[in-house]
Amino acid sequence: MEKIRRFTITREGIGFFKAILESYEEIGIMTVIDGKTGEIELIYPVSAEADLMAIMDDMKRFDILFTEARDVR
Fold first, then answer.
1. How confident is the model over 11-21, as pLDDT tens digits?
2. Are 42 and 32 in contact (CB under 8 A)?
3. H or E stretch including 13?
């Protein structure tokens, strides 16, 4: 089962977060919805949610903060 969530992050953090996410096997897929506003979409298996949230939390060290969008499908 998959989960889809949208977030906004700093534009400068998009590439770095994508590279970090891709370095993990099967943790999730990131799509940039709007590069100007920093809106991204994450699709990931429910079983990987805790790991993904830990990675996102760790991004604070690099001043990359996530704000979740409310109107996701």
1. 999 999 999 99
2. no
3. helix 13-22
DSSP H or E run through 18: helix 13-22
Say if pTM beats, i.e. exceeds, 0.85: yes
Give the Cα separation of 9 and 60 in Å (integer): 11
Q: Amino acid letter at 42? A: L
Q: Please say whether the beta carbons of 31 and 55 come within 8 A.
A: no
21 close to 28: Cβ distance less than 8 angstroms: yes
Domain 2-68 has CATH 3.40.190: no
The ranges assigned to domains in the chain are: 2-68
CA distances from 12 to 18, 28, 53, 60 (A): 11, 20, 20, 13
What element of type H or E holds 56? helix 49-58
